[in-house]
Amino acid sequence: MASEPGTRPRPPAVGDVPTRSHRPRRPWPVPLLVAVLLAQMAVAMVTTAVRQTPTIDEPVYVGTAASYLHEHRLRLNPEHPPLGKLVVGVGVALAGPAYDASFEGDQGQVGRHLLYGSGNDPWRLMLFARLPVIALTLLFGLVVFAFARELAGPVGGLAALALYAFSPDLVAHGSLATLDVPAAGFVLTSVWLLWRARLRPRLWLPFAGAALGAALATKMSALAVVPVVVGLAAASAWWAGRGPERRGAWRRAVAGACVVLLTAVAVVWITYLLVDPRLRWAPEQPVPVARGLHGLAVEVLPLPEAYRDGMRIQFAFENHPWQGFLFGRVYTGSLWYYLPAALLVKTPLGMLALWAAGTAAVLAVRRLRPAAPYLLAPTAVLLAAAMLGSRDFGTRYAVFVPMFLAVAAGCVTAVGRGGARVRAVAVTAVLAACVAVSSLRAFPYYLPYSNEAFGGPAKTHLRLHDAAVDWGQDLGRLADRLRERHPGERVWLVYKGSGVPRYYGIRAADPRTVPARKVRGLLVVSDSSIAKAKGRLAELIDSSRPIDTVGHSITIFRR
Q: In what order do the strands lie in the sheet with 545-550?
């Protein structure tokens, strides 16, 4: 019936079927902006992947993926579960490299032989191996957007996605055939699905368990977050069961936690069965013995023996006296504040501000407070576990932080009402734009990124080392630089990485094997080696003159 003259039309009531007159219009700019943000991230990652030679860990994962495809055995790299390498294996299978099953060597040697000793093109093979991880990183961007949109609306979702897409750490590690971004993304996906399970637990709890299982089947460091995720599953199931009759709410909470936990365990088993349906496991090297609480945890977990042996190897790694480097100081062991300090260096300043504001928002704003345990508890527990670890090798061990806190930062746009909210959105937009500018200025050198307060990518090597700066990624760029600017000169090389210099046309010798007086010409040293140089190498560097840098990770000296 038409409205009477002078009266407003009746707004649609709950349960009305939308008609053409009052069907809500789709906010078409939002999908377009999502596509634009993800497209620029894809371009940044693919461009980075094309130009970088293998980093230290990548040949191990690529070689292991090839062995899965051709041998169907759990032989290599037991310290990491198979799923991430199966993802990499999708690209390896598409590349179709020649594989020498008769080659004998450790996991690093198998990977280098596949890349450089089997007649394959390492540039092509590495690009194909990296593409599935790039695709997965983009999908996790959609999770970030969806999570933040459910908390703070479309504007909050776009703000969160912008921080995710312009994060130098996520672009850097999302463009590599490694396991850090996939594991962190699966944890985020599990938590997002648990948030959705507050309304539809029967639908989302099994999927949340599958995502948790995927994280556990990618990196064992995800084990630290299992109690938090199981607790959140119970909380979501309890929330969904609230009502006049609450007596069954606790039973539903326990059932929800069990569903998530059992599904996660099942996914881990399925992952190992996908590699070898017979679960053959014969370690090529002696497996360390885990004692005390570590040993008890290994024994009681209902997981495959290969997984539990991988845990034993990881515990042995934690007992190794690794060397670290932070703000010019070389040390043995680990510093509990290393990761917070590294994040401070390697995170854009605008992103740091929005992380702090987002954390405050989800804690202080009443309508956002229910999301605080879902966003902050997993982040805090994973970060604490990583801080207590023994390997101070860069922010890749905390790559979950820019994922979870991007969602929290998006909640800043939901703070206040009216004019206050408009100002919050405006400030968020300005800070996000600053993040974008800082990130784009680093292109294509995302791995050695540091923010402007610490001098940018050119100065990162003065404060951090290893995967935070120099992970062996610039060997190809070094070859180009030597051909273009220093043709025919004698080269002495100290390279930290898994690439083979001779393949790229670099004819060089190790300067540490001859008397210093014979080292003349060009001395080329990876910045991580410079950071920890001592003895003969330190003397050579001190008596040489720096003349060039490559990718902010390799320095060329003149002698």
A: 508-509, 491-494, 522-526, 554-558, 545-550
d(CA 167, CA 267): 30
Q: 426: exposed, middle or buried (C-beta count within 10 Å: 0-12, 13-18, 19+)?
A: exposed
User: What is the reported pTM?
Assistant: 0.93
Mean pLDDT, the chain, rounded, equals 93
In angstroms, what CA-CA distances link 297 with 111, 314, 398, 413, 453? 32, 13, 24, 43, 43
Scan for tokens 């299992």, then name that residue.
226
pLDDT tens figures, 498-542: 999 999 999 999 999 999 999 999 999 999 999 999 999 999 999
**Number of continuous H segments (helices) and E segments (strands) in the chain:** 20, 7
Share of the chain above pLDDT 70, in %: 94
Entry field: residues in the chain: 559
Phi, psi of 216 (to 5 degrees): -65, -30
Over the stretch 305-319, which tens digit does the pLDDT of each residue have? 999 999 999 999 999
Is pLDDT above 60 for 4? no
Q: What DSSP designation does 498 have?
A: S
Residue with tokens 């996605």: 161
Q: State the chain's maximal CA–CA distance in angstroms.
A: 101
Contact partners, residue 269, CB within 8 Å, separation at least 6: 303, 304
Cβ atoms of residues 189 and 207 within 8 Å: no
Helix (H), strand (E) at residue 546: strand 545-550
**Residue 508 β-bridge partners:** 491
Q: What is the percent of the chain with per-residue pLDDT over 90, rounded to a whole number?
A: 89
Backbone angles phi, psi at 383, to 5 degrees: -65, -40
- The Cα–Cα gap between 177 and 180 comes to 9
- Nearby residues of 406 by Cβ (< 8 Å), 6 or more positions away: 144, 148, 160, 161, 163, 164, 167
Q: Which residue has the tokens 């746009």?
A: 413
